[in-house]
Prior knowledge:
Elements: H1 4-23, E1 28-33, H2 36-40, H3 43-55, E2 62-67, E3 79-83, E4 86-90, H4 95-107
Parallel strand pairs: 1-2
Antiparallel strand pairs: 1-3, 3-4
Helix pairs in contact: 3-4
Amino acid sequence: MSTPLEQILQKQQDALSRNSEKSKDAQTKIFVGMATCEIAAGSRKAMEVFKNAIEAGELENVYLSQKGCAGRCNLEPTVEIYEKGKVYQYGKVSAKRAEDIIEKHLKNGQPIKEWFI
């Protein structure tokens, strides 16, 4: 019988394997901060905007997931986008900013530098 810590570590490894398999072919990966403090700052609304855009077919070959605490409470909600070997980190991402990131950055290839962290 395994210890509680061993069970947690196994669940963590299983989750990492599932996510790795799902995301390996995605050209773009979007991670929305979903720690408790980020949720309180409104990250669920931003996550919903990205999710709806993917489900509506506005974004293709995109992997969407959540991330934990980034330790940047003053910049929450945060979003990280991994694309073509680059990482873009956005701060204070409201639902409106998420819509703008989709239009300008993800659809038209114009990252919004003013919102970078």
